[in-house]
Design goal:
The complex is a heterodimer of chains A (246) and B (295).
Chain A lengths: L2 E12 L2 E12 L3 E5 L6 H9 L5 E6 L2 E2 L5 H7 L1 E3 L12 H9 L9 H17 L15 H14 L4 E5 L7 H15 L4 E5 L3 H7 L2 E6 L2 E6 L1 H5 L2 H8 L6
Chain B lengths: L1 H31 L6 H19 L3 H25 L6 H22 L5 E2 L9 E3 L2 E3 L1 H23 L1 H11 L1 H5 L5 H27 L1 E2 L3 H16 L4 H22 L1 H18 L3 H6 L8
Antiparallel strand pairs in B: 1-4, 2-3
Helix pairs in contact in B: 1-5, 1-8, 1-9, 1-10, 2-3, 2-4, 2-8, 2-9, 3-4, 3-8, 5-6, 5-8, 6-8, 9-10, 10-11
The chains are: A alpha/beta (246), B mainly alpha (295).
């Protein structure tokens, strides 16, 4: 299995603060890389660098191709899609239209009725995976923060994203919701994709990740299978400060 | 009573052109969250190119119309490149101020190129006036109404049923969300500018062809009418721009009839003042509770 994502010597500075300090990381195709670490350790910065929103030093290759010079929409069109801790959705467009805006499936100005019906069915299938099908025609206002994050994931799912960057998808979820999310991810979202999962919940990281990297103050302090990394006492101590821990 | 209805009819005809101007402003404001006050002057450049074609080669309305569209488009692209694309998204005031500078530049340029007070513009083809039950609708007014209606239909189809419209609404809704999607924000903003220019050019064309003559002050006039209609209707709302344009037209017509031409402007600015105090969100802003129709 080749590496889908190859990060070498990635460094990001905010003034005098080192948000990412010479991070090397290799994520194999169709695996899930968990990213853990205390608040402010550089987890979200890593995602922002990968989407092209923060300019960083170092090299980033996606499927063997350097992408550091690409703009965020160019990266999105390559299939690099992210979700947010605070979801970014279109609040004045219906949930189905939110899905459609992400899809941008055709270059044609207008769509014939049959193409439209096919697209709608595809979008509704995506919503159904995350249990949002029944509210397709409503505004996102009525969704909880957690459900908005599900909508973002449904959006990423239907776009055929190849590299998914998930920023704490389970934050604020009840245990039952987290279980549902974990199931939807395992069955639908993860298969056939490379995923970078930033998460605080250790149970979720253990259940979903192939590998786990732990960051502290922008530096990589641990890497390996979740069980081997989480067995290290220094890592456990580092992650103890988190709001939710195993 | 008949007067009231007749004035309303006249007002709707004038208001439909105002509505197009307001929609042009709203498209740009909605998508970019920035005000292009040189919008009126860009249309003015268009109709002067139309008038030039007319005067130079005694071209008819069709050729003048084409020249108007091209002129308005080129002037708009010039403004977009200089005042909007070149200035970063968060500096809304800088864009507005620099669009004011371009306004002055365009107005002075046209004044120098066309030194006369007025310039002839080809008139609309004669259509029979309509008289029903004591009400009168001039052929010109009918043509203006029909053309504006057609533009609105096309625009509606484009905005709510095309992919470009979806991208435009997405960007108007949340620039933050659009920034992490596949949407090419710069391209959508540029095309929105072009679309607004074409819609404005239709309004300019209809007004210029109704009057049969134009002046460089048309830019000021169009910016004022469009801005007032947009503010009465509600900033950023397309439905508001349409309503605002019609309300402005009707109020002008009634004020002119009952109070005289001198009082007309006073009444219009009084209405704007009242709207800003009583309905700060505009007519549509208050009723529209954030449904998807808000561009």
């Amino acid at each position: 299995m080749g590496a889908a994502l190859e990060i070498t010597d990635l460094t990001l500075r905010f003034g005098g603060v080192l948000a990412l300090d010479a991070v090397d990381l290799s994520v194999a195709s169709n695996t899930v890389m968990g990213v853990a670490g205390p608040i402010g350790s550089g987890k979200s910065s890593l995602i922002n660098v990968l989407t092209g929103h923060y300019p960083a030093q170092g090299s980033v290759c996606f499927q063997g191709r350097p992408i550091a010079h690409l703009t965020p929409p160019e990266r999105a069109r390559l299939g690099i899609v992210r979700t947010f801790q605070t979801p970014r959705v279109y609040r004045r467009m219906s949930i189905l239209e939110n899905m459609r805006a992400a899809l941008h499936a055709t270059r044609h100005l207008f769509q014939g009725p049959s193409a439209r019906r096919r697209e709608d069915a595809h979008l509704r299938d995506g919503l159904a995976v995350f249990g949002l099908d029944h509210v397709a025609h409503e505004l996102p206002d009525r969704l909880t923060q957690f459900e908005l994050r599900l909508l973002e994931m449904a959006r990423a799912h239907v776009t055929g994203a190849r590299l998914l960057l998930l920023d704490e998808p389970a934050a604020g979820a009840t245990s039952e919701e987290a279980r549902q999310l974990s199931r939807a991810m395992t069955e639908h979202l993860i298969p056939g994709r490379t995923v970078v999962l930033v998460e605080h919940r250790i149970d979720l990281l253990r259940a979903l990740c192939t590998d786990l990297v732990v960051l502290q103050a922008g530096r990589k302090i641990g890497f390996g299978t979740p069980d081997s990394v989480l067995a290290r006492p220094d890592i456990r101590a580092c992650l103890m400060g988190d709001p939710v821990d195993a | 009573m008949l007067d009231l209805v007749q004035n309303t009819l006249d007002g709707i005809a004038a208001g439909s052109a105002y509505a197009l101007l307001a929609i042009g402003f709203t498209l740009i404001f909605g998508v970019m969250r920035r005000l292009n006050i040189a919008f009126g002057p860009s249309i003015m450049v268009g109709i002067f190119l139309g008038a030039w074609v007319h005067v130079q080669w005694s071209a008819g309305l069709i050729e003048a119309a084409l020249a108007t569209f091209i002129g308005a488009l080129l002037a708009s692209i010039y403004i977009e490149r200089l005042s909007f694309a070149a200035i970063r998204g968060d500096a809304a005031l800088a864009s507005m101020a620099s669009s004011f500078a371009l306004w002055m530049q365009l107005e002075q340029g046209v004044s120098l190129a066309f030194p006369g007070r007025t310039t002839a513009f080809p008139t609309l083809p004669p259509l029979p006036d309509i008289q029903i039950a004591g009400l009168f609708l001039g052929g010109d007014d009918l043509l203006v109404l029909l053309s504006a209606g057609l533009v609105l239909l096309v625009l509606h189809r484009l905005i709510y049923h095309s992919h470009f419209g979806l991208e435009m609404r997405a960007l108007a809704d949340s620039a933050e969300a659009a920034a992490v999607s596949r949407i090419n924000i710069n391209r959508v903003a540029f095309l929105t500018f072009c679309l607004a220019a074409l819609v404005g050019a239709v309004a300019g064309l209809l007004i210029a062809a109704t009057d049969g003559q134009i002046t460089p002050k048309f830019g000021l006039w169009a910016t004022m009418k469009g801005l007032i209609a947009m503010m009465i209707g509600g900033l950023g709302s397309l439905r508001g721009a349409l309503l605002g344009g019609l309300v402005l037209g009707i109020v002008e017509a009634q004020a002119q009839w009952y109070l005289g031409a001198a009082a007309r402007e006073i009444v219009v600015y009084g209405l704007l003042f009242l709207c800003l105090i009583v309905l700060p969100g505009g007519i549509a802003g208050v009723r529209d509770t954030g449904a998807e129709r808000k561009l």
